[in-house]
Specification:
This protein has one domain. The termini are close together. It is an all-alpha fold and about 110 residues long. The chain is about 80% helix and about 0% strand.
């Protein structure tokens, strides 16, 4: 795949990172007394909404199945990192095995796509 062909994949991973930022902000909102009226909720909502225009670009260049796998796996890895480092959540062996399998699915998809 030429370098130009990787741009939609990189954009998809970037959107995953933006989505994780939105999730982080919504997690902060969930800790508030009135989560849906907190500033964290509105900022998190705006962060999510900001990606809508970029998805049109990605969807023109990649199959929906490819987008789904790339987005999901990168989102899982990034959310796990945020949970582990920012919120001190621990991982058990089954979760680590699941993460390895998720990465393996992405490698297989990119290898045979």
């Amino acid at each position: 795949m030429p370098v130009k062909g990787y741009l939609p994949i990189l954009v998809t991973v970037g959107f995953s990172a933006v989505g994780v930022l939105g999730d982080y902000l919504l997690k902060l909102a969930s800790a508030q007394k009135a989560p849906l009226r907190s500033g964290w909720f509105y900022v998190g909502f705006a962060v999510y909404a900001s990606t809508a225009f970029g998805w049109v670009y990605v969807m023109r260049h990649l199959k929906l199945a490819t987008i789904g796998v790339v987005y999901s796996v990168s989102m899982i890895l990034l959310l796990t990192a945020i949970g582990a480092f920012a919120f001190r959540e621990s991982l058990n062996a089954y979760e680590v095995i699941g993460l390895v399998m998720a990465v393996a699915s992405l490698v297989l998809l990119m290898r045979f796509a």
